[in-house]
Amino acid sequence: MKAAYITQTGPPEVIQYGDVPVPEATGSRVLVRVKAVAVNPIDTYIRSGMVPMDLPKPFIVGCDLAGVVEAVGPDVIRYEPGDRVWGTNQGLMGRQGTFAELACVDECWLYPTPPRVKDEEAAAVAMVGITAHLGLVRDAKLQPGELLLVNGASGGVGSTVVQLGRVLGARVIATVRGRDRVDAILKLGADHAIDSTAVPVESALRKIAPAGVNVWWETSREPDFDRVVAALAPRGRMVLMAGREARPPFPVGPFYVKGCALHGFVMFMAHPDEQRDSADDLNAWLSAGRLRPRIDRILSLSETAVAHRLQEENTIGKSGVLAGKIVLRA
What is the CATH number of domain 2-113+294-329? Predict the structure, then answer.
C-alpha cells in the first residue's frame, strides 16, 4: 500500500511517499480503508524530532483519519466491514500513523461517521474537535451565558472552540489577524471578532467585556500572561494547549487574588472513555449542522511533505498562511 512515512526525523523533506506493508487486523484492531486525513501541529513536531517519541521504522506520519472499515480483529465488538469511521490519536506513543491507504487502529480510538458527514469533514474535526471539547467541557466547565475569548480563532482548533462555545451557550469573542478572517469567524458564530492587526486587543476587550471574560482559550505557543490575567473576570479560567518549550513570565499575584484557574492539557493523554464522550457530542453536533469543520485546503496524500511545510510555517513561523485545517485525500 502507499503511505507517507519517514525513516528518520528531520525537515518536511524527510517524508517519503511509497510502498509499505499492509497492517493486519488482530485482537481489537480495525483495518480502515483511509479516505481522508488531516494535518496537525503535533504531526510536524514528531516528524521533526521536536517532540521525541519512540517511532517504529518506517514510521507512517499522522494522527487523524476517516474512512471505511475493511476488516476487523477477532476481539472487535463495535464495528464490522463496511462501517464508516473516523478517529484520531494515532502516530503517537509508538502507534503507527494514518497517512496511508490502509490504517490499523484499535477500536477504542474510532467513532462512527454520521451519515451526512463527509470523510473530509470528519478527518478535519477529529483532533481539533476532541481537543476543544476536552478543554471547554471537562476542564474549563464552560457554562451557558459565560463569556469565552478565543485568542487566535482562525486556525483549526480556534475555529472549533468558537463553534463549540456557541453550541454550549456561551457568548464568544474571537481574535484573528486580518479583515477577511473577521468576517469568516463571525459567520462561524462568534459574537465579536477583534482584528489584532488593526486594533490593540486589550483596548477592544475593555469595551466589549469591561467586567472581564470567564474563559480565555489560548492557541499561541507564547502566551502573554499579564494580558490574559488582566482580561479575566474573577474566578476566570484559562486553557492552554500549546507552547511545549515556552517559559513566559507569569503574574502570580494578580492571578491568585482574582481566584483564577489555569488548565493545561495534552489531548492525546486523555483516557479513551473521555475522548469517546467528546466524540459522541461532536457527532451529534455534526449531524445537526451545528458544527462545521473549517478546511483551508485539500491536497493529495502524495503531497504530505508540502502539507507539513505549510503547517510548520503557520505554527512555528507564524506566517498566518492557514485559516483552517489541511486535509489530504488518500
Answer: 3.90.180.10
Mean pLDDT of the chain: 95
Work out the number of other CB atoms within 10 angstroms of the CB of residue 86.
31
CA-based radius of gyration for the chain: 20
Whether 166 contacts 288, CB under 8 Å: no
Local structure of 276: helix, strand or coil: helix
Residue range 43-84, pLDDT digits in tens? 999 999 999 999 999 999 999 999 999 999 999 999 999 999
User: Would you say 297 and 314 are in contact if contact means Cβ atoms under 8 Å apart?
Assistant: no
Question: What CATH number belongs to 126-267?
Answer: 3.40.50.720
Place of cell 474549563: 140
Domain ranges for the chain: 2-113+294-329, 126-267
What tens digit of pLDDT does each residue of 249-308 get? 999 999 999 999 999 999 999 999 999 999 999 999 999 999 999 899 999 999 999 999
Domains 2-113+294-329 and 126-267 share a fold: no
Neighbouring CB atoms inside 10 A of 268's CB total: 20
